[in-house]
Specification:
Blueprint (H helix, E strand, L loop, with lengths): L1 E7 L3 H13 L6 E7 L6 H6 L5 E5 L5 H10 L5 E4 L4 E2 L4 H7 L1 H4 L7 E9 L9 E2 L11 H7 L9 E2 L8 E4 H6 L13 H11 L3 E12 L15 H22 L18
Parallel strand pairs: 1-2, 1-4, 2-3, 6-7, 6-10
Antiparallel strand pairs: 4-9, 5-10, 6-9, 8-10
Length: 273
């Protein structure tokens, strides 16, 4: 079984759909951990709805995506963890494919790997080479049944691409997550910290691969990291997105080079050691 970690911040309607898709399209009873990063009352109805199928961790105040992911992983009880955004929608048989697929089960993908799950997004182009197919740009127009029916058509015969990993959602062994120290909670915003995390994974020789044999749906800019959908105050939104520059400056201070990636979304080429 797999431990699914979902950091969530003030986004109950997308969390609802995410949980529905996980639970209804799984074969086993996987561990599903929702980390409410403050404002837990906003999601209480969703949590009540799925209480028999999920575990819930709460922060009284907003601590940020990095802390939420770390806390969720620390509490996971399975060997494999799968970190997803609340604006992801899972496809049919997702757990059967991930657990039983020969690429993983027979270790064609090495044990020491970080496996990026391929995604379908409604708009593009995507810097991560995701599939562009519009099943709905927001939850109100999303065609769930159409997505579930059509998604298998986008699965590729080649199982994984070793040159195109290092982004969300990702699956890896919990011990490997702990090996790299998880996400750096000192970043002043959720921007760039994922680049930092995957760089650390590279430095301990974890393989960053893309799994192409299934696809999750992703609503662009609806997740905890982006917050477009639920910042009502224009000044607050401006302040939040200005944190991207601050995060980039912190990355430069920490590593000694700017957060710039090569064509495979990696930073390791900039290091001298």
């Amino acid at each position: 079984m797999i431990s699914v970690i979902i950091p969530s911040f003030k986004n109950p309607k997308y969390l609802d759909l995410c949980l529905k898709s996980i639970i209804e399209n799984q074969e086993a009873k996987n561990e599903i951990i929702v980390v409410l990063d403050g404002y837990a009352d906003l999601s209480k109805d969703v949590i009540e709805k799925y209480k028999d199928s999920i575990s819930v961790l709460e922060f009284e105040e907003n601590r940020g995506m990095s802390s939420a992911i770390n806390y969720g992983v620390y509490n996971a009880t399975n060997e494999w963890i799968l970190v997803v955004s609340e604006d992801n929608v899972f496809c049919k048989d997702w757990d059967t494919i991930l657990v039983n697929h020969p690429a993983i089960n027979n270790k064609l993908i090495k044990n020491n790997s970080v496996i990026t799950i391929n995604q379908i997004e409604p708009t593009g182009p995507s810097i991560y080479n995701f599939i562009i197919q519009d099943f709905g740009k927001d939850i109100e127009e999303f065609q769930l049944e159409t997505f579930l029916k059509e998604e298998p058509k986008f699965r590729k015969l080649n199982i994984y691409d070793t040159n195109d990993g290092s982004t969300f959602p990702f699956m890896m062994k919990k011990i490997d997550f702990l090996k790299v120290g998880g996400f750096d909670i000192d970043y002043p915003s959720p921007f760039v910290v994922d680049w930092d995390f995957f760089l650390k994974c590279e430095l301990v020789d974890l393989n960053l691969v893309r799994f192409l044999h299934l696809n999750f749906y992703h609503f662009v800019s609806k997740s905890t990291k982006n917050r477009n959908g639920y910042i009502e105050n224009p000044n607050e939104k401006t302040e939040f997105f200005s944190g991207e520059q601050k995060a980039a400056e912190y990355f430069q201070y920490k590593w000694g080079f700017p957060p710039k990636r090569d064509k495979n979304n990696k930073c390791k080429q900039f290091l001298n050691f």
